[in-house]
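Team,

Forwarding the record for the chain on the shared tracking sheet. I've put the sequence and predicted structure together so nobody has to dig through attachments.
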Amino acid sequence: MMKLLYAPTSPYVRKVMACAHLCGVADHIEWLDSAANPVNRDMRIAAHNPLAKVPTLILQNGRPLYDSRVICEYLADLSGNDHLFPIDGDARWQALTLQALGDGMLDAAMLARYELTARPAQWQWPAWREAQLVKVAAGLDAIESMASTLGVDHPSMGDVTLACALGYLDFRFPELDWRASHPQAARWNASIQALPALQSTIPHV
């Protein structure tokens, strides 16, 4: 059985587990508790991933895979799933670009959160945090403009990653109230979040 070093609130872990459910391999993954932290290294993770970050997947032969992008593509290949990472050129590049957008939004949102939760108050830089949230806002505008083209029934990894990014905003940044100014994105998000793979991976404290 494969093993996944995880944190229950990590949107990147949610991305991997949503992918695992869509690929039908979630039951073949054992969850290993860890304490991923941007400052304090968890040696349980570092023993398999020198970056000490989650998610880290340990294969049956003991070889580790990281990060979420690599793990998700591995799971899709393992299961023969052909729509998360399309083979066709245009569809593939679109899926990978949307995945990069979702990951970039998550990176920026997490840096904004860490600025308040991980950095001592005397060293916090409000302008830096605001710059990260500008990236999030720009990502939301992009999703709004393309919402009618995004997948639900057979989502690509890009669609799943965007859904995880929006889910993370709901979880950690409810004050943004992003739906109020992005009705098309909100409509698409409601549809994709209803999928069992997303419902079963909603983050919790």
